[in-house]
Write a structure and sequence with these properties.
This protein has 358 residues and is an alpha/beta fold. It has 12 helices and 17 strands.
C-alpha cells in the first residue's frame, strides 16, 4: 500500500488487514513521481494497481515495463490510454500485461457491455448508462464526490467518442439529454453525454458495431447546472487574467466546488445499465444487463469504492494468473463473462434479461 503520506499508508494498510483478519498489506512511503523510489520495491512485485490521478499513469506504465511487472490502472483520460497502448510491443517482450482504464466507468461498464454482447450471436448496438449518486441527495447540488474532483470535471469537458452508423463520431459533452426510469428510491434520473466513459472501445469496435454510446446518470437538475458552468468557461484549462493574476478557470472552480460536494459520511449508490440490440437464432433480440450497488454498512466501503476497486482487482488477479494475454490490453478485450463471474462472487447483484422482439 503505497502513498506519499506515510501515516495514510499505515492507516489504510491496518484497515484492510483488520477487515480480512490477516496481515497481508504492507505500508510503503513513496512519491509516485520519484522513479528511483518506485524501482526500489516494484521489482519484487508481480502486479501493481495504479489508483493515482490519470496524469501519472503514463510514467507508471514506463516503470512497469522497465521492471517487468503487470499493471492495471483507474485511467480516466483516453488520450493517455492511447499513449500507454504504444508500449504494447515492449510489454509483450517483457512478458507482462498492462490494462488501462479499469474501475467503474470506464471499466465495469465496458465489461458488462462485452458480457451483454456475448449473449447475442450478432450484437449491433450498445447503449450504456452509468453513474454514482448519493442515496439521500441534498439541495442545491443533489450530488456528492466519491472520487477525485479532477476526474469529475475531466468527464464534463471536451467531446465523447461514440459509434454511429459504424463510424467514430465526436459528440460534445452535455449533449443527448434524456430521462430514464429506475426502481425506487431512484425513480427518474437524467442522462447526458460525458467524455472518456468508453475508453478505446469505439476504435476497437469501429465497423463491427452500428452504434455504441455511453451516458452519465444524475439526479434531475444536475445537467442544467453543470452545463451552465461549462458554458461560462469554468471548466477551461487556459489561464485567464483576473486583475494582475493568472488563474486557470478549472482550478478556481475546484476550490469553490469541492467543499460543496464533499461529505465525511458518504452513503451512495452506483448503477450501470447496458442495452445490447442484435440477433440471436435469427431473431431480433434485446439484452438488458443491470448492476446496482449500495454503500456497504458492514465494512464501510462506498458503492463507488466497491465498483471501482473490485473491477481493478479482478483484472489485476486475472493478469497475475496469466488469464489475459501479454501486452497492453484495452479493457474491452477482457472476457466479460469472466469479469461478471468474479463480480458475482464478490456479492455484486448483476441482473440480465434477454427478450426476443417481434
Amino acid at each position: 500500500m503505497v502513498d506519499l503520506n506515510d501515516e495514510l499508508a499505515k492507516e489504510s494498510s491496518k484497515y484492510v488487514n483488520n477487515l480480512i483478519d490477516r496481515d497481508v498489506v504492507i505500508p510503503v512511503q513513496a512519491d509516485v513521481e520519484n522513479e528511483k523510489e518506485l524501482d526500489s520495491f516494484i521489482e519484487d512485485i508481480t502486479t501493481i494497481i495504479s489508483a493515482v490521478p490519470y496524469n501519472f499513469n503514463l510514467a507508471l506504465t514506463k516503470t512497469a515495463v522497465k521492471n517487468g511487472v503487470n499493471m492495471c490502472d483507474l485511467g480516466g483520460n483516453t488520450a493517455i490510454i492511447k499513449q500507454q497502448i504504444e508500449f504494447d510491443s515492449e510489454a509483450k517482450l517483457k512478458g507482462i500485461t498492462i490494462v488501462p482504464d479499469c474501475g467503474m466507468g470506464p471499466g465495469m461498464n465496458i465489461s458488462l457491455a462485452v458480457y451483454a454482447m456475448s449473449l447475442l450471436e450478432k450484437p449491433q448496438e450498445i447503449y450504456i448508462w452509468d453513474g454514482g449518486l448519493p442515496q439521500n441527495p441534498k439541495q442545491p447540488w443533489n450530488y456528492v464526490l466519491t472520487f477525485n474532483i479532477g476526474g469529475l470535471t475531466n468527464e464534463y469537458y471536451g467531446k465523447a467518442h461514440f459509434l454511429r452508423n459504424g463510424k467514430i463520431s465526436e459528440v460534445p459533452c452535455f449533449d443527448g439529454y434524456e430521462e430514464l426510469d429506475f426502481p425506487p428510491p431512484l425513480n427518474k434520473l437524467e442522462a447526458f453525454v460525458t467524455s472518456g466513459g468508453l475508453s478505446t472501445m469505439p476504435w476497437s469496435f469501429e465497423g463491427k458495431l452500428k452504434c455504441l454510446e455511453n451516458k452519465t446518470l444524475r439526479y434531475p437538475g444536475h445537467w442544467a447546472q453543470f452545463r451552465a458552468f461549462s458554458e461560462l468557461g469554468l471548466l477551461g484549462l487556459e489561464p485567464i487574467e483576473v486583475g494582475n493574476v493568472k488563474v486557470t478557470p478549472r482550478d478556481f472552480f475546484h476550490v469553490l466546488l469541492e467543499p460543496e460536494l464533499t461529505q465525511d459520511d458518504v452513503r451512495d449508490v452506483g448503477l450501470i445499465r447496458v442495452k445490447c440490440i442484435g440477433e440471436k437464432e435469427g431473431k431480433h433480440t434485446e439484452v438488458i444487463v443491470d448492476l446496482m450497488d449500495y454503500y456497504d454498512e458492514k465494512i464501510g466501503f462506498t458503492a463507488m469504492q466497491r465498483m471501482t476497486g473490485w473491477h481493478a482487482s479482478i483484472v489485476a488477479i486475472m493478469a497475475s494468473q496469466d488469464r489475459i494475454r501479454k501486452g497492453v490490453v484495452p479493457v474491452e478485450f477482457i472476457p466479460g463473462a469472466a469479469v461478471v463471474k468474479e463480480a458475482r462472487r464478490r456479492g455484486f447483484v448483476i441482473e440480465e434479461k434477454v427478450e426476443v422482439k417481434e
